[in-house]
């Protein structure tokens, strides 16, 4: 752990027979900084991505899981739910306010990671903000109106809220690759293929299309009937 190095100047006087000389010596003292881990509340902890977030936080430096909120598996230890070797002694509860109040009383820095759904995310962020905590939101199919409302609310409250369209490293790299390649082509198609498509376009495809449209370049000039976002569904039929 890094330590803070502080310097204090102590004037020390040395007297000799012929004259008096005054020198300043520098004494250094090693002070261990008082650091406290960021308290992370996982809302939607019983979901697959919520369990992955719990494991990631427990392995990260400077963070610790302070609460697990979900309407499923209530009362079970989140460590055991995540198949960890040891229990975290953190039961899953379905009351977000109770967890936020406990962290607020400890005056610790906290953040809420929300994996719930579009119908509850706005109220969840409002609760977190009321207790002085920032939010990270990963809610698939969240509407643009909800994002706009969250932005206006957090700006008014002077609190931060990160709405992440995806938490996949592969998807982020794909988006960056699409942006880099788009400067070398005049036509762009975004093709999605899934075995059992349920909701097209996906949030990832929408984000890529928005990124490309914000570059200030017009694609597919030769064929104005071709949309920037092309949805292609491939269904594998078994013989």
UniProtKB/TrEMBL annotation:
One family name in Pfam for this protein: DapB_N
Its keywords, alphabetically, are:
NADP, Oxidoreductase
> What organism is this sequence from?
Vitis rotundifolia
Name recorded for this polypeptide = Dihydrodipicolinate reductase N-terminal domain-containing protein
PANTHER family linked to this entry? DIHYDRODIPICOLINATE REDUCTASE, DIHYDRODIPICOLINATE REDUCTASE-LIKE PROTEIN CRR1, CHLOROPLASTIC
Q: Which InterPro entries match?
A: DapB_N, DHDPR_bac, NAD(P)-bd_dom_sf
- Record keyword Transmembrane helix present: no
Query: One cellular component GO annotation, for this chain's record?
Result: chloroplast stroma
Asked if NADP is a keyword of the record, the answer is yes
Q: Which GO terms describe its molecular function?
A: 4-hydroxy-tetrahydrodipicolinate reductase
Dihydrodipicolinate reductase N-terminal domain ranges (all copies)? 38-165
Which biological process terms from the Gene Ontology are attached to this UniProt entry? lysine biosynthetic process via diaminopimelate
